[in-house]
Here is the input.
Amino acid sequence: MSGNHPYRRAGSVIVAGTAVWFVGISPVSRVYITPDDAERLRMLQAGQRGWITGQHITAAGTVAVPVGFAAFARAIPALGAPRTRAKKWAYAAAYALLAGAPFFVSSVARRASDIEGFAYRRGSSAPFLAYSGLHVVALAALGGSLLSLPAKRWIGVTAAAAAPIYGAVLLAKKDIPPLFFYLVEGTVGAYLMAWEEPAADKPRAA
Here is the structure.
C-alpha cells in the first residue's frame, strides 16, 4: 500500500485475524482455567455447539494472522541495508507463523471432534508445543524487523522481549496460553495500521 501508511493493509489483516482468534476461543472460555477434568467435560457438553463453532473460527484467525505478517514483509521496501534486513526478519517471522499454523489448526480440529479427549487432556501435546515454539521464533524475528525500521523503539522491544519471556515459560511449564502471543501480535498489527512512516531525512523516533 502506498502513501504515508504503507503497512495499514497488512496491519488491518493482523488485527482482524487476532480479533477472529479471540472470538473463536471465547465460547466456554472458563474451560481453559478449570482444573477438574469431569467439570471441563460437563462445561463442554453444555456449550457444545458454541465450542465446536468457536474452534472453526479460531482456526480461521490462526491462518489469517500469518497472512497479515507476510503482507507486512512484502510491503517493506528493500532500499538500503536496514530495510533489507527488516524485510528478511519480517519474512522469517511470517514463515515461522505460517509453519506453526497447521499444528494449531490440527489441535483445534481435534478439540472440536473429541470433546471428551480435550476435557481429559488426552492426546499428544507435540503439535501445540511446535506451534508455540514457532510463535516464539516469530516474535524474535518480528522484533528484529521492527527494530531495523524507523518505528518507535517500544514496539520492536515489545516483540523482541516477549520471545525469551514466553520461551522460558514454555520450557518451564511445557504450556503457555496462546492468547499471550496474539496480544503482542495484535498490538503490532494496530501499530502498523496507524504508523505513518517519517520522511527519509527525519531522525528515528525514540
Remarks:
- The first helix runs from residue 8 to 25.
